[in-house]
Amino acid sequence: MATDNRDRAHGPANGTRDPDGDRYDAHLERSRIVWDRWSDYYTMSENDLEPMREAAIDRLDLEPGDRVLEIGCGPGVNFDRVRSEIGEHGELIAVDYSPDMVAKARERIEHHGWENVDVRRADATTVEFDEPFDAAIATLSLSVMPNIHRTATTVHRSLVADATFVVVDIRPIPDGPGRVLNPLLWRFLRWYANWNPDDDVVDALATVFDTHEIVDTSLAGTLYTVVCEKGD
Fold this sequence. Notes:
By secondary structure, this protein is an alpha/beta fold. The chain has eight helices and seven strands, in the order αααβαβαββαβααββ. It is globular and about 50 Å long.
């Protein structure tokens, strides 16, 4: 597969290794393997979860000309809708660590002839950008990052003041008798998505952003949407 400068996976921003060392690197590499494997089988996220993804994009309240960041874009299932909101004069920059996902996202861009959508292969935990964004979105991606808190910090740093970050993600059953199934669900998520059991998405967002709110849940609370705001 041909690569260019966009495909040079970013290391930690300060040139040092993550404090987790080898465990961080192992998680990142396993994510690449897992999501390369699933790059041809993304029907559930694209079709079955479309209403939840569409609702999440609605909450960004995008306007023509906005600059949007997508974290863990996969094959680009959100591109069409986001671009319809930001128009020709907006810009969508997406990152993903899986080379196969990036390739499929670029195929989607080329097929539609979108000149203002760009996909970069990068570690979303540490990637840096030259210009800030007006909004950001992550669907089914934040919980598989090797360091969720640092990824949330990266997004926060990359946004303008008063910007919105919307996250759609998955977790074990949060309450009720169904929690007895969580050990099985944990194993499934770990196998299927390289889910990170050591960090909590909502806790990380609460620590980093000025406000956060869970606004939508489904499937016994395992699927959820969080709206975060960066202060001025």
